[in-house]
Amino acid sequence: MGIVVPLTLLLIVGAVVSGVLLRRQAGMRTAASGLSGLDAEVEANRWVVRLGGSLAGLRPGADEVAAQALAEAAGRHHTARGQLATARTPAEYALARQTAVEGLQYVSAARSALGRASGPPGAESDTDAGDPTEGTARRLQRVDGRCGVTV
Q: For the chain, what is the mean pLDDT?
């Protein structure tokens, strides 16, 4: 009889710990992306680094449209880096990824305005699979003396 109470307590503690661990693992996955927290972080980081690399070699020269597109892309890069630094959940990492992809679309618009090839494939082809960034920032044009984005 003396061993029944400690054994019961041990079983209860084990059940609680198991429940907490299972719940924590389930919380690390998102239904929309299927990525764990670490996978989402790696994916977002990949896009932010890619955006930074795309910005590194581009200079707009005297082209105002390209300069505006590069300024927007640099702003997206700065924002995505900040989002990545503070992200803790897969949804927050997805937001950082989305911001970086938008920046890459601005880089593509700038390259187009400069008459260069659009760069390596990626942002456009990877966003076709139901990504919320689809159709964002495709082209820049001058409207009433100001640069604007056409979707």
A: 76
